[in-house]
Amino acid sequence: MKRKIQSGSFKYFFVKFFVDWSVKSSYKKYQVEGIENIPSDGSTIWASNHTNALMDPLVVLSATPGQKVYMARADIFKKKSALKWLEFLKIIPIYRIRDGLNSVKKNDEVIAQATDILLDNVPLVIYPEATHRPKHSLLKLSKGIFHIAYSVYDNSDKNRPVYILPIGLEYGDYFRFRSTVLVKFGKPIDVSAFIRANDDEPRPVQMQKLRALLTEKLAELITFIPDDDDYDVIWEYVKLKAAEKKTFFKTLKKVESSTGKKLKGLMRNLAVNKSLVDEVIGLREKEPKKTGELLYKIERFRLWRIQNGISVYSISDEKGWGKILIKFFIMLAGLPYYMFSALASALIWVPTVILLSRIQDDAFYNSARFAARFALSPISFILWIVLYFTFLPWQFALACLLLSIPSLRYLYDYGSFARRVLSDLRWKFRKHKAPDYKDLF
């Protein structure tokens, strides 16, 4: 009898331990909220927004102990050499129209397998947008997740709870390694109770209602910007405002007062972002002409800022020359270890640069960086040991080995710090050329 994909194994949990560590250390801050919302009974489908390619399943996997089974697009299963790895990683295919009508027919088998997984009380993770997109928004949700939920309900005791658990993934940056990520579990949707409460309606109508409900719940868990022509400029408005410390804490205080909750860590960033989005959208509805003029100026400024390589933090949290010079000298002081780190981690970052040059979709950048780090770190570590202890006295070899362990993280963090310092300098010298600067700040 063929082993079920949801069956546990020692190899899986051993690899998961290393994966979890690698994922969490890939971010400056990795925060999980809402664990108490995960149902402890019945069958649970985990439904997440999909913005950052393969990093999304990795950060969800690492959020809780235990195994999970994932659904992924079927085209990655075409290579036979990948099938064993995908099965080991507990990933099953879902077919889409673009895969061909004959392929879509296979979804009956997929739904039957997904049902079996959920009846064994193993979480099934689905990305109902059906594709990734690095935006603070949501695509129209596919119906596959609801077909699976109904299948579990139909093939079990009708008193057995079937849940859809919404999960919001909020990244500090979609494209930079060593950014931040917040994994937020929302309140679950009790599909079984929903079906019983709406039993007088046709199932297609029920599914439309469930789709609207899940979309609403996912939007509540993330910084959600309506997917319209003003998306980029609204996000620029939010970033500029949130980067200003005075505005950030004023907005945070207002949110905490209205909710009666004290927020911590990345939850504060999310709350401020959401409040600022509501603010600008409210202004747009109340005073469309005035807000339209403001957004036009912000868009001109945004394009200039990007062209000149200037961070929003350099603008909204402008520093005096004293602080800039202190940061500049700190950057210079850290340069020797940066050069050592570049040499020590060359076996990882050089192949990463080559790999990135071949990737057309920027959303895969961090996935590629993670994959290179995950695969090459053990090899690099062994090479360090051999080289250091072969050519250096053991005291120096041990010191070099200890310095090499955090070298890749330092390489990325130093790069981020240096970019910020250089951005501060550019802003100091070029702000007089910024379009509409005086009207905005």
- For the termini, the CA-CA separation is 69 Å
Shape: globular
Alpha-carbon Rg, integer: 24 Å
Largest sheet: 8 strands, mixed
Low-pLDDT sequence parts: none
Could you characterize the architecture of this molecule?
- With 441 residues, this protein is an alpha/beta fold.
- The protein folds into 3 domains: 212 residues, 3-Layer(aba) Sandwich (Glycerol-3-phosphate (1)-acyltransferase); 77 residues, no CATH class; 120 residues, no CATH class.
- Helices cover 59% and strands 9% of the residues.
- It has 19 helices and 8 strands.
- β3, α3 and β4 form a beta-alpha-beta unit.
- α10 packs across α11, α15 runs antiparallel to α16 and α16 packs antiparallel against α17.
- The chain is globular and about 70 Å long.
Summarize this entry quickly:
This protein has 441 residues and is an alpha/beta fold.
Provide the fold topology.
Blueprint: H1 10-24, E1 29-33, E2 43-48, H2 55-61, E3 69-73, H3 80-88, E4 91-94, H4 101-104, H5 107-119, E5 124-126, H6 144-154, E6 162-171, E7 180-185, E8 189-190, H7 191-197, H8 203-221, H9 231-243, H10 245-259, H11 266-286, H12 288-307, H13 312-316, H14 321-344, H15 346-356, H16 365-391, H17 394-404, H18 407-430, H19 437-440
Parallel strand pairs: 1-7, 2-5, 2-6, 3-4, 3-5
Antiparallel strand pairs: 6-7, 6-8
